[in-house]
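Tokens for chain A. Residues wanted.
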């Protein structure tokens, strides 16, 4: 008879992922051991292996769940009942919320994807491409003319994502600009350009 899972099985797996994300982001995936992760969790290695068969499986799940959250937010913005700009603002705010509150997981996604086996890495790449393709659709709603140029719509999309993807490095919750304000600012800069920004309008963002 199969062993019955504990009611808090999923919660414990999530806790492992959170601890692992902090450890991997701080020390680096390759330099982190299962023993160190077990210590961080206040548990034994055998306890960890009950929930995950390997360190690679933990890394994969951190990335998979993180990117799936981005996928969910991007697709929700795309189907939102609003103007193209409103949809884009929703996207930017939601992404900033993820990056600010899950910075360790984002660091791992950017730095340690190459540590995954080929099949796992391909799945993560596929999910990331799904995010990008959804944002491309939002960009085309803002500027349908880009659809006539295969050379520009993806680079334009990546330029916007680059504005917010690296905020985990420097953005601080207790800084003078809130994450929502920065998300709106990124949209304004993206849509209107830096030189056209009105300082008085910025005070109202």
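Reply:
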């Amino acid at each position: 008879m199969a062993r019955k899972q504990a009611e808090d099985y999923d919660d414990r797996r999530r806790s492992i992922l959170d601890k692992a994300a902090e450890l991997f982001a701080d020390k680096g995936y390759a330099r982190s051991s299962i023993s160190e992760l077990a210590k961080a969790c206040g548990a034994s290695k055998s306890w960890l292996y009950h929930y995950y068969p390997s360190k690679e499986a933990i890394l994969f799940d951190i990335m998979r769940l993180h990117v799936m959250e981005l996928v969910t937010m991007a697709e929700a913005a795309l189907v939102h009942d609003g103007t193209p700009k409103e949809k884009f603002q929703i996207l930017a705010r939601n992404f900033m919320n993820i990056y600010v509150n899950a910075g360790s997981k984002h660091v791992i996604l950017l730095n340690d994807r190459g540590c995954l086996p080929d099949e796992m890495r391909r799945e993560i790449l596929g999910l990331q491409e799904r995010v990008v393709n959804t944002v491309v659709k939002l960009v085309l709603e803002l500027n349908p003319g880009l659809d006539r140029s295969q050379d520009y719509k993806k680079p334009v999309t990546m330029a916007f994502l680059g504005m917010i993807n690296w905020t985990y490095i420097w953005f601080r919750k207790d800084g003078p600009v809130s994450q929502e304000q920065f998300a709106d600012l990124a949209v304004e800069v993206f849509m209107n350009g830096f030189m056209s920004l009105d300082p008085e309008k910025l005070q109202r963002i």
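The CA atoms of residues 67 and 127 lie 6 Å apart. The chain is about 70% helix and 0% strand.
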